[in-house]
Structure to design on (505 residues):
């Protein structure tokens, strides 16, 4: 019989041949065997670990020390940072004393150096470059030759025009003599009127021909004079894209002409800048400015505002005004195209009462429909007065106080807690009563028990004594308080002071 196993309800049932051990005995032996092998494996792992640990104990110790040191340093850095933050917070300045000082504020704008005079030189007549005595960077005095065109054809043309004039003058003299003779004969009735008029016409045609020949000659002479182009002012050659022998076109007709060179007056330099609309109102013509040239270290020169555009333009999404600034003392190292920074003074006040900007607060007063400017003035320990102020010009740190503060006043640099703020003082020195402290004149008049409120009984008694205006005001206040209903509650509409439950306005 072959032993087998039957599984039932998580219990093992065995069918054994006679003489075999029972199931419980087999299980105990299997457990002992498993435990033996497990203990053996654990023992072997322990011995292996112990051997590894003993061989590498120094390395392990060093690793532990390094990790511990790094952890300690990080903890120490965190503690130091926390202590420094607390020290800064503890030692931060929360108040300032009002003093007198100078307030100077300037607007900084960027611009590019440009010549005050820059001209693109183009010929007025067609021709070929015959003479080109200047090159790029050459300085040319006013009246000196910039370039000359080939004038051979024009000179030939002038000779031809001159011969035409001589011929026209000869024909004119002959026609004139014939006309004068025929005029005398016609007056003596020796020739007909028709013959006289024909001779007169030939004389007039000869005059026109002579005038036309003269005009052609003058025109050719003018063209000849335009073949030589002179410098209109003291200048420097910025560019010269042509060479000798190159054909160029003139500016006559629909042609704009060929650019021979570009010249500029580098002794008179300007800066074209774009000033923000918020700052341009503080500027004016002939205002002095300071100019820093980025490409030239430690160079600051003076400038003057020559022109401010009368109309705003938008550049890079910013609305502003084009401003022309002239350099008063141009340095030879300054070259057109360099970037410059212009410092334009817009506020300059000497020895004025000045408060830190951080001490000045603004707030919209919705009741009076205006913006209030104020400071918190320290009166006693941890007590402040809300003082209204009138301010003037400011720089990046301080603002001029025109009214409201005096020298040696101590002001808070941050808003105090509400319980530390006392009364509000206006610019005239009057104390401004808080809204919650204002007494209703009607309550003051009809409050008989002195509790500051009108009870239902007090309203009822006062209702008959009130004027029409007072009754209207009381009803409006009650409607406002009870959401359009009278103080009587329920769904009734705007009843008098006698209705409903006892409530106080």
């Amino acid at each position: 019989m072959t032993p087998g196993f039957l599984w039932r309800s998580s219990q093992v049932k065995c069918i054994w041949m006679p003489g075999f051990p029972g199931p419980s005995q087999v299980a105990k032996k299997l457990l002992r065997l498993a435990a033996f092998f497990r203990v053996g494996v654990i023992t072997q792992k322990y011995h292996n670990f112990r051997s590894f640990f003993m061989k590498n104990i120094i390395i392990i110790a060093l690793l532990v020390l390094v990790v511990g040191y790094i952890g300690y340093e990080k903890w120490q850095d965190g503690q130091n940072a926390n202590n420094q933050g607390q020290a800064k917070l503890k030692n931060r300045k929360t108040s300032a004393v009002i003093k007198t000082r100078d307030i100077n504020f300037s607007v900084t704008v960027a611009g590019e150096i440009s010549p005050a005079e820059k001209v693109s030189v183009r010929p007025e007549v067609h021709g070929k470059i015959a003479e080109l005595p200047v090159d790029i960077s050459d300085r040319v005095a006013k009246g000196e030759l910039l370039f000359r065109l080939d004038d051979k054809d024009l000179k030939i043309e002038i000779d031809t025009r001159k011969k035409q004039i001589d011929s026209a003058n000869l024909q004119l003299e002959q026609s004139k003599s014939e006309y004068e003779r025929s005029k005398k004969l016609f007056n003596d009735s020796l020739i007909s009127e028709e013959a006289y008029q024909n001779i007169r016409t030939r004389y007039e045609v000869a005059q026109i021909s002579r005038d036309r020949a003269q005009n052609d000659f003058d025109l050719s002479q003018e063209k000849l004079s335009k073949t030589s182009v002179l410098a209109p002012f003291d200048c420097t050659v910025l560019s010269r894209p042509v060479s000798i022998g190159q054909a160029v076109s003139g500016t006559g007709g629909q042609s704009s002409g060929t650019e021979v060179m570009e010249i500029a007056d580098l002794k008179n330099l300007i800066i074209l800048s774009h000033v923000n609309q918020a700052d341009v109102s503080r500027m004016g013509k002939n205002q002095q400015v300071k100019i820093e040239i980025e490409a030239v270290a430690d160079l600051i020169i003076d400038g003057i505002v020559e022109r401010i555009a009368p109309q705003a333009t938008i550049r890079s999404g910013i609305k502003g005004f084009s401003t022309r600034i002239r350099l008063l003392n141009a340095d030879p190292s300054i070259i057109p195209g360099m970037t410059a920074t212009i410092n334009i003074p817009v506020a300059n006040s000497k020895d004025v009462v000045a408060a830190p900007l951080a001490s000045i607060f603004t707030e919209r007063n919705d009741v009076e429909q205006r913006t209030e400017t104020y400071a918190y003035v320290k009166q006693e320990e941890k007590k402040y007065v809300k003082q209204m102020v009138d301010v003037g010009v400011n720089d990046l740190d301080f603002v001029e106080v025109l009214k409201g503060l005096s020298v040696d006043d101590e002001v808070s640099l941050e808003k105090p807690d509400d319980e530390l703020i006392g009364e509000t003082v206006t610019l005239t020195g009057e104390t401004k009563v808080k809204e919650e402290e204002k007494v209703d004149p009607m309550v003051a008049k009809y409050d008989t028990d002195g509790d500051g409120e009108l009870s239902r009984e007090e309203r009822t008694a006062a209702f008959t004594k009130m004027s029409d205006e007072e009754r209207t005001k009381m009803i409006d206040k009650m409607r406002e308080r009870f959401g359009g209903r009278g103080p009587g509650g329920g769904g009734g509409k705007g009843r008098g002071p006698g209705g409903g439950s006892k409530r106080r306005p």
Summary: Confidence is low (pLDDT under 50) at residues 1-17, 485-505.
